[in-house]
Amino acid sequence: MIKGYDPQPLVEVLEALLEERNESLREASLRSGLDHGAVGRYVRDKQRPSRESLIAMADHFEVNPNDLMELAGYQRLKMF
Length: 80
Fold this sequence. Notes:
Helix content: 55-70%
Strand content: under 5%
Order of helices and strands: HHHHH
Shape: globular
Distance between the termini: 27 Å
Structural class: mainly alpha
Oligomer: single chain
């Protein structure tokens, strides 16, 4: 786990998005263009996603990438 990274806020948002779309961890991973276990690692294992993974998930879930970036402990990107 990354020092200073609290995964719980991001986990809660991802779980809510999964429930809203009635998707499994695997479905969300694949539909985001990530490997089949990616979202599971972020939700169950509480791993910190890369910026690229956050952008891919934000695109899939149709949310602002900066919202996920902040929850994962990254600075907001001006491009979004």
